[in-house]
Design a protein that fits this description.
heterotrimer, A alpha+beta, B alpha+beta, C alpha/beta, B: alpha+beta, SH3 type barrels, 5-stranded antiparallel β-sheet, 1 helix, 45% strand, elongated, C: alpha/beta, Rossmann fold, 5-stranded parallel β-sheet, 4-stranded parallel β-sheet, 16 helices, 38% helix
């Protein structure tokens, strides 16, 4: 009756426990990566990160796969405290893709990079037979520069640190679910896809930031669990402070989803020394932080991740095995 | 055993209707609630409205809560 | 309304009342969505130890037998429309997620109507699973497919009824003082459908909504009846549930389906507890059309889900719990659905 685990399923790509297991069992034993973070410092204050982008539909409300790739890589660099500088892009195109669609994606990619002050310096294109791809896959690598003396990392997180979030949860996942599965929401919800490097720069202008992570696949819950696992410390989130757009909340209730586990593409968690009022203020002053909130605290009094519910109850927020599926019951 | 949520009916066209999900509208079936009218609050499950919430029933809930909270 | 139903002062008042129980009581929440809601709000830790909540058989995914999933694996190259809940439930050959990775066209739908859309393009089988809440929508979908003469549309019937399962449970004389009754099933059946509890079994039940104050208010009413020794049924969800229920939906169920004996995972075969297609819709039956076998398949060895579903054992008392049986590798039905009592316990109560 055991799960037949000898082939890849979509759950292996969900960024949750099954993805970690795949890395631990297949990649890490032979590649022996020096870090399992999304990016690594390679030399002379340079950081490198790499990411692959697959999304259907290719164009969605609030973004497209080109913008998504640039934002995703910028954000992975930015949360390390670095300034994103250079990108490379590999395109895997499927036979039959309209060139007009490709043009839109590449223009959007260029526009997003230009606006962020980042250069696309190299690229590659391959075409696969019809049926062997999904229109466009993009693989993107980014390089950024760390400022001198900045030290961020999970190792610096302490009891009492505060967790700040720059805005509402789950908007990207709901926008994609609606576009992909034809839910028919009108007007369609928009993805929050955005580059966060100016927000991180603003945050770092005040001392006391110890760690940052963008809350993509697996959502804020997964970020918190990764931090709890890495530090051995607990985290308690305050449900009344968690920002969720009312429409996202309503759609999630309808589909039986929890916004804490849903993907975002323009949200980050920043862990700051208390009192983090100044950092919260810096977030709120930024255009991408209008709904920012102090959502939780790091604690050595609990193990794992917990949510203090709006009625005063306490519920655990474990790492999920795979992505959250819509449910009827 | 079943995820179902309240939502307000915004338009009705025969057996089809749209509900408001705090800013976006969603089409659902009204085949199970022929009595539903625009403006009604509905209980929605798997694309179907299952019940209509009437003002009398909402008042009953308030009365019940008063009974339980008070007595 | 929803603010009032999530009000922490009201929660405090109600939990204080429950803390003054005259004697310890055991209440079964029949419905898996209650189990989830209790966990989601962290209610269990706010309740006094004298009030024990036991999760019952009210998760349609959990009680769907292995043979049902094995039947889906027997299908030829068609589209299988399933609710997301079913995707990761293990059958003898693996999960439907695995089946999809091996090339089967498995599509997650949010409602039964979406299967009609799929069937207009390609032969489609709707995996029809649910209790009275979900069944009317499925019935409407079946009726429309028949009206449309949609050749490519079939259903694999797995819908179940709550009342026969509760009776089977009570016939086993479980150590349960009262029942928190499923609010959304009752929206269809009406609260009167549970009058058999005091009449035939001298048991009490309260129909409850799913907000924290809904659940606690229902528990207070239930505790009062139990402590007074006056069995009865009350409706604590009157904004949704009426005594008679949704009679259009009931008629639709009667028109499209007929009661049949059916297998419940963990509970065995319960007479007249399932729904098969009525003769005029029998041509839409996927089991008949594709010649699928639904013969019972033995339960996995060591699995105590039957005892958990009947309230004889709490999830963590099962020897397999969190050892051989986890949400990522479930052995029994209670671990497979996120609202299954073991999965909910694993997620919300274990730490």
């Amino acid at each position: 009756m055991k799960e037949h685990n000898d082939i890849i399923t979509l759950a292996h790509g969900a960024g949750a426990r099954r993805t970690s297991a795949l890395i631990d069992e297949v990649f890490q034993p032979v590649l022996q990566l020096p870090t399992q973070d999304d990016g690594a410092e390679i030399d002379h204050r340079l950081v490198v990160t790499t990411d692959a982008f697959v999304v259907r539909p290719l164009l969605f409300p609030g973004g497209d796969i080109g913008k998504l790739a640039v934002c995703g890589v910028i954000n992975d660099i930015a949360v390390q405290g670095a300034t994103p500088r250079w990108l490379t892009a590999c395109f895997i195109l499927e036979e039959g893709l309209p060139i007009e669609t490709l043009r839109q994606v590449v223009e959007s990619m260029a526009r997003t990079a230009r606006a962020a002050g980042v250069q696309v310096v190299a690229g590659d294109t391959k075409v696969v037979e019809r049926g062997h791809g999904d229109g466009i896959f993009i693989s993107m690598t980014g390089i950024g520069q760390l400022p001198p003396k900045l030290e961020l990392g999970v190792g610096r997180i302490c009891h009492g640190d505060q967790i700040l979030l720059n805005g509402t949860l789950g908007d990207h996942a709901v926008a994609i679910a609606n576009a992909r599965e034809g839910l028919g929401l009108d007007p369609p919800p928009q993805s929050d896809c955005a580059p966060l490097h100016t927000l991180t720069a603003a945050l770092l202008s005040a001392p006391g930031v110890v760690f940052m992570r963008d809350a993509t696949r697996g959502g804020l819950a997964t970020v918190c669990n990764e931090v709890a696992d890495a530090t051995g410390l607990g985290i308690v989130l305050d449900e009344t402070q968690l920002p969720v757009n009312p429409r996202t909340a309503h759609v999630c209730e309808l589909l039986g989803l929890d916004p804490l586990y849903l993907a975002n593409e323009g949200k980050l968690a920043a862990i700051c020394r208390p009192d983090a009022t100044a950092h919260l203020e810096l977030m709120k002053q930024h255009p991408l932080g209008a709904n920012a909130a102090a959502v939780g605290t790091v604690s050595d009094q609990v193990r794992g991740v917990w949510v203090r519910t709006a009625i005063g109850g306490l519920r655990p927020l474990p790492m999920l095995d795979a992505d959250m599926l819509p449910r009827i019951c | 055993m079943c995820v179902a949520i309240p939502a307000q009916l915004t338009t009705r066209d025969g057996n089809r209707g749209t509900i408001d999900l705090s800013g976006s509208e969603l089409e659902i079936s009204l085949a199970l609630v022929p009595e539903a009218q625009t403006g009604d609050w509905l209980l929605v499950h798997t694309g179907y409205a299952l019940a209509v919430v009437t003002e009398a029933e909402a008042a009953e809930t308030r009365a019940l809560l008063n009974e339980v909270l008070g007595g | 309304m929803s603010n009032q139903l999530r009000d922490s002062a009201a929660v405090k008042t109600l939990t204080n009342k429950l803390a003054r129980l005259e004697r310890p009581i055991r209440i079964m929440e029949v419905c898996g969505t209650h189990t989830m809601s209790i966990g989601r709000w962290g209610l269990r830790k706010l309740l006094p130890p004298s009030l024990q909540l036991i999760s019952g058989p009210g998760c349609p995914v959990c009680v769907t037998p292995v043979s049902y999933f094995d039947a889906l694996w027997q299908l030829p190259d068609v589209t299988i429309a399933v609710f997301g809940d079913l995707l990761r439930v293990p059958g003898s050959h693996g999960t439907l997620e695995n089946a999809r990775a091996r090339g089967m066209d498995v599509q997650v739908v949010h409602g039964p109507e979406q299967a009609l859309k799929l069937a207009r393009k390609r032969a489609t089988v709707l995996a029809a699973v649910g209790f009275e809440t979900t069944t009317p929508g499925i019935a409407d979908t079946i009726r429309r497919a028949a009206e449309e003469k949609l050749d490519g549309f079939h259903v694999l019937c797995g819908c179940k009824l709550v009342e026969p399962a509760l009776c089977a449970l009570l016939d086993g004389k479980p150590d349960i003082d009262g029942f928190l009754l499923p609010g959304h099933v009752s929206a269809i059946t009406g609260s009167n459908a549970f009058d058999f509890l005091p009449r035939d079994y001298a048991a009490s039940g309260v129909v409850a909504g799913f907000e924290p104050v809904d659940i606690l208010a229902a528990l207070v009413l239930l505790a009062r009846m139990i402590c007074a020794g006056e069995p009865g049924v009350r409706n604590a969800y009157p904004r949704i549930v009426t005594p008679q229920g949704n009679q259009h939906a009931q008629k639709l169920i009667r028109d499209v389906f007929v009661p049949i004996d059916t297998e419940w995972r963990g509970l065995g075969i319960i007479p007249a507890s399932g729904l098969g297609l009525a003769p005029r819709y029998a041509h839409l039956d996927a089991a008949r059309h594709y010649g699928l076998s639904l013969d019972p398949v033995p339960e996995p060895p060591g699995c105590r889900c039957g005892d958990v579903l009947q309230g004889r054992m709490l999830p963590h008392e099962c020897p397999l719990f969190a050892q051989g049986c986890t949400p990522s590798s479930p052995v029994g039905p209670c671990m497979v659905s996120s609202e299954g009592s073991c999965a909910a316990w694993y997620r919300y109560e274990r730490a």
